[in-house]
Amino acid sequence: xxxxxxxxxxxxxxxxxxxxxEIVRRLESGDASLDESIQLYGEGDRLRQQCEARLQAxxxxxxxxxxxxxxxxxxxxxxxxx
Length: 82
Hints:
Elements: H1 2-9, H2 13-29, H3 34-61, E1 63-67, E2 73-78
Antiparallel strand pairs: 1-2
């Protein structure tokens, strides 16, 4: 399972999201056996965690542009999601 976790952690956000969508479609189809469904669910959960971590990291890097008195950019401040 560690190899699979390593492989997931190396996926780009887009690749992880695409694989997660494939897993959801497979599970929703009802064609997977119980054992396969359990495996897919576990992989999907790890992919979801990876995507969430990537989004949180991206959000932490976002800065908002501050506008000065004359309407011109005057610098940046950390992103505040609230």
